[in-house]
Amino acid sequence: MGMVTNLPQEAKNKWNEVAQTRNPEERLRLMQEFLSLVPKHKGTEKLCAHVRTQISQLREEIERRKQMKRGTAPSYFIEKQGAAQIVILGPTNVGRSSLMRAVTGSTPDVAPYPFTTRLPVPGMLPYRDIQFQLVEAPPILRGASEGRGDGNRILSLARNADGLIIMVDLTQDPVENYLTVAGELEKARIQTVKPEGYVEIRRRGHGSEIQFIWEGELVETTPEEVVALLKEYRITSALVRIKGRVTIDLVEDAVFGSAVYRPTIILANKVDIAPSLDGLNHLREAARPLEVIAISVQKTQNLPELLGRKLFEMLRIIRIYTKEPGREPSPTPIVGRGRMTVAEVAKALHTDFYKRFKYAKLWGPSSKFPGEKVGLDRELSDGDIVELHI
Ligand SMILES: Nc1nc2c(ncn2[C@@H]2O[C@H](COP(=O)(O)OP(=O)(O)OP(=O)(O)O)[C@@H](O)[C@H]2O)c(=O)[nH]1
Ligand SMILES: [Mg+2]
Question: pLDDT of 292-330, one tens digit each?
């Protein structure tokens, strides 16, 4: 958020009470009290929006618990399958269901009128020996992060995913489509651009010190300043994980809950009937650095291949084919994202392969020669073939 400016001490104390309260009704009351203690100006806008999001989530959680007891809550939860779960977000009628039909085996209803899809719909997109699980979310409205139109459940679905597709309609102000979705994601603290730094504050009930876990560095601040800031929020005992490049603002953000990063691409649909390409150009500007891909679900050739390739790149997928001595490699790879070592492959196969590991033999792009002997910490590339010996 990059936000909080000089909150009064009362407000900081109140947030400490919030953080230490588990009971949802009590927590709700304290959050409302906290809001009333925050002076309203530009510098506190985002904080207030974020707390209002948390309030609406809590309200819903309380409501849902009641429904669960009565057994009347329909489930939004979709169990993950395949290499990654990608949630398709967008305003109504942009063509999300049409896309599901075009690239997965699932057949949600498509209709010219809005609000056809009411519950999440999953489907699998096969691509080069793996499968992506796509999930069509119900349409998202402005105000979703404050609970409008099932917004909290849609945003939880997005938070739980491995990546996102934001779909917009080139015939209906695509920039405004995009900004609506992006704004709601931001308020729900789901980031679509990889942040430079990340902070996690895990409060502890005992002991009396701040312990840092260093996976990065502080920028224009010192550990002493961080400790002093946390003290203002009555946080005297916590584990503080510092990843990447972290400013004091980012630390203050994290007091109010950790943000998540979900890699995202934008599909600009209905290019076949777009009145001009102006909308597309403006969208590219507004969404930078996110990639915008112009498509027509009805006319674009090889859409499954195109989308598969874009998701594959976005998630930095690594496929590792394992084999047994004297046999052909398994046709279904083990899938990693970003980075993968022999150790991770061994663990994924069976803990025994990891515990009793002796060595591995390696073929493929990252081997120096076919059948190279390697250890657990060897880093692998997409398409490698690994034979584990125990
Ligand atoms: N011309 C054209 N029409 C499209 C395209 N994609 C979708 N449509 C039409 O747009 C309308 C809405 O499509 P859906 O796939 O139902 O859209 P949705 O985003 O799932 O809509 P809701 O679930 O109702 O929010 C339908 O009439 C589709 O036929 C496209 O690429 N070109
Ligand atoms: Mg739909």
Answer: 999 999 999 999 999 999 999 999 999 999 999 999 999
Q: 244 with 116, same domain? A: no
Question: If you measure from the C-alpha of residue 76 to the centroid of ligand 2, how many angstroms do you get, rounded to a whole number?
Answer: 15
The pLDDT tens digits for 324-371 are 999 999 999 999 999 999 999 999 998 899 999 999 999 999 999 999
Q: Specify whether 187 is located in the same domain as 110.
A: yes
Q: From 89, 92, 96, 98, give the residue whose CB has the most ligand 1 atoms within 8 Å, as the site to mutate.
A: 98
For ion ligand 2, residues whose CB falls within 5 Å: 96-97, 116-117
- Beta partners for 278? none
Q: Tell me if 83 sits within 8 A of 132, measured CB to CB.
A: yes
Which range marks the domain in which residue 375 is found? 317-389
Residue 298 near ligand 1, beta carbon < 6 Å = yes
Position 332 in a domain: yes
Write the pLDDT tens digit of every residue in 139-179.
Answer: 999 999 988 999 999 999 999 999 999 999 999 999 999 99
CB-count exposure of residue 317 (10 Å: 0-12, 13-18, 19+): buried
